[in-house]
Amino acid sequence: MTAFTLSYREVISDQTLLENWREITLSTGGTQSTLQDIKVAERANGFCYEDSTKHHTRNRFIYWRINYDVLELVEHSLDVNLTGNRVRYRFIDTPILDGISVHETYENVIVLVPTVCSVHRLIFPHPDRFHRQVRA
């Protein structure tokens, strides 16, 4: 009997389409600081929704990338086609620190973004909220 070896393969999606980003520029008005001269490494991470029993949160996740003062947030779903799911935040002359966190509540998804000047709270509607509005 031939032994079966388990292996994984990366599946690359069709990348010929242009990505439509919604771009938001934030001027925090932060004062000049010695921390603004620091070098921050590029970082990336992700978040998946807790309730995987519902079709609108199952196989759905958010990932982000940080490049100096730019934060890119993308939401993907393996079950549903999402539109308007890419947003790019630019914090003018304010490097983003490592430590972005995502918190899920009943109504919202909250993203905390630490920079050298402050912590920013980004609030997005939870997919459950959209689903409840459609059903009502």
TrEMBL record:
Primary localisation category: nucleus
Gene Ontology CC, one term: nuclear pore
Cell compartment(s), UniProt: Nucleus
Pfam families named among the record's database cross-references: Beta-prop_Nup120_160
Naturally occurring in which organism (per UniProt): Anoplophora glabripennis
The protein's name: Nuclear pore complex protein
Molecular function via GO: structural constituent of nuclear pore
Keywords annotated in UniProt: Nucleus, Transport
Domain Nucleoporin Nup120/160 beta-propeller, chain residue ranges per copy: 60-133
InterPro entries tied to this protein: Beta-prop_Nup120_160, Nucleoporin_Nup160
Transport found in the keyword field: yes
